[in-house]
Amino acid sequence: MSCILQQQEGGGTVAVMSFNRERLLYDIENNAHIEGDAMESEDGHSRHLVQDIAEEGNIDRVLRVVDLSIAECREMLYCFTKYDVDRPELDNALNIPESYGIVLTLPPGFSQTTLNLLERQVHEYVVCKAVADWMSITHPDRVEGWAAKAASAKTWIQTKLQARTGRTRRPMHPF
Hints:
There is one protein chain. With 175 residues, the chain is an alpha+beta fold. It is built from 6 helices and 3 strands; from the N terminus they run ββααααβαα.
């Protein structure tokens, strides 16, 4: 993950949040491994299914969910990520880049600390969405916890960040 900042004319800033695929997969695998270890099951096959999230064949499903989650984050951040259509013809080919990027055009005075927190919330959202999806396939009774974690990150992205974009109106009276 990294934020690359460039100043724009007019005082705004362009920031690029980059999410390395291998780092995302590491966190996804790590969470699935812990989830498998914590399973109260004598059936080793169930544990093995949960922990094999990034094995050959399984990884394609996980990467599709990662790609979808990044696209959802771009849409959640619409007021910062909007740009004109440059590829009107799309296909459903699996996109496996080395890193996923989100380009943001930020208003003047946007806080670096808010940007750092946003980056971490997007990372958490993507990881939790992927683990929740995998649990829906391999261990359905564990989906709710991961979905709740993803929903918490999504709520932060949609509400807390959006609140920072509007103008603040101060009342005319001191009390």
